[in-house]
């Protein structure tokens, strides 16, 4: 049985106006559903071990979102273990969902960067969607290069951010990823766009979360 570790943010506010945030519901629920349908073991970790927060509960009527909230998904996410207490070497993949929350506690977290680096270098799959690819920012491999350098990457775009949370985020994610060498792929705002470059799988926005999971599964099963 393949094992996937979903690493979530612990932040619940962002920016100068303390905008409420958390993990964006479909960005965790849709991948969770795909991993579950594939028969994978799914575990949760958060940076602090405190109960994570969910955003976009207004989207609860979507079938996979509702199943997550009323089934095992949200129950398990509330019991996310502290990342430092998890033996990540036992997982075939890690996945980081978005929402604005990762922009608060994931740009620089040293343990998270180490986990991403070591997971990738031992041949496992790393995936993220929307603002989740901020988890790859500042990750350096053993040869000193950025993990993003020369990789085909998607994330929430500058165009999308300008019409969503420009006054709340500390920086534009697309710009930061490109500055570390990412080959950035942007689709029309809010359209589905996911991309696999070897064992790195990323997606642009909530509509891309299902595709990220599907591509991660394809890589894991190859």
UniProtKB/TrEMBL annotation:
Domain of life: Bacteria
Keywords, alphabetical: Lyase, Stress response
Sample GO molecular function, one term: glyoxalase III activity
GO cellular component, one term: cytoplasm
Biological process, per Gene Ontology: methylglyoxal catabolic process to D-lactate via S-lactoyl-glutathione
Residues annotated as signal peptide: none
Domain DJ-1/PfpI: 27-216
Regions crossing the membrane: none
PANTHER family on file: GLUTATHIONE-INDEPENDENT GLYOXALASE HSP31-RELATED (PTHR48094:SF11), PROTEIN/NUCLEIC ACID DEGLYCASE DJ-1-RELATED (PTHR48094)
Family as reported in the entry's similarity comment: Belongs to the peptidase C56 family. HSP31-like subfamily.
Protein name according to UniProt: Thiamine biosynthesis protein ThiJ
């Amino acid at each position: 049985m393949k094992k996937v570790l979903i690493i979530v943010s612990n932040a619940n506010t962002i920016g100068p106006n303390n905008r409420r945030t958390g993990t964006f519901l479909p960005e965790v629920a849709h991948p969770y559903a795909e991993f579950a349908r594939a028969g994978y073991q799914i575990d949760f970790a958060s940076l602090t071990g405190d109960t994570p927060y969910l955003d976009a509960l207004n989207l609860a009527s979507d079938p996979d979102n509702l199943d997550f909230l009323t089934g095992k998904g949200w129950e398990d996410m509330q019991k996310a273990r502290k990342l430092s207490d998890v033996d990540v070497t036992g997982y075939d993949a890690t996945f980081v969902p978005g929402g604005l929350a990762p922009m608060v506690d994931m740009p620089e977290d040293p343990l998270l960067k180490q986990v991403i680096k070591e997971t990738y270098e031992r041949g496992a799959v790393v995936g993220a969607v929307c603002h989740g690819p901020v988890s790859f920012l500042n990750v350096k491999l053993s040869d000193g290069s950025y993990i993003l350098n020369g990789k085909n990457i998607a994330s929430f775009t500058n165009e999308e951010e300008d019409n969503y949370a420009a006054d709340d985020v500390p920086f534009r994610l697309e710009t930061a990823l490109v500055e570390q060498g990412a080959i950035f792929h942007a689709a029309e705002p809010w359209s589905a766009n996911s991309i696999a470059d070897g064992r790195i799988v990323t997606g642009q926005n909530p509509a891309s979360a299902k595709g990220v999971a599907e591509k991660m599964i394809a890589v894991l099963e190859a």
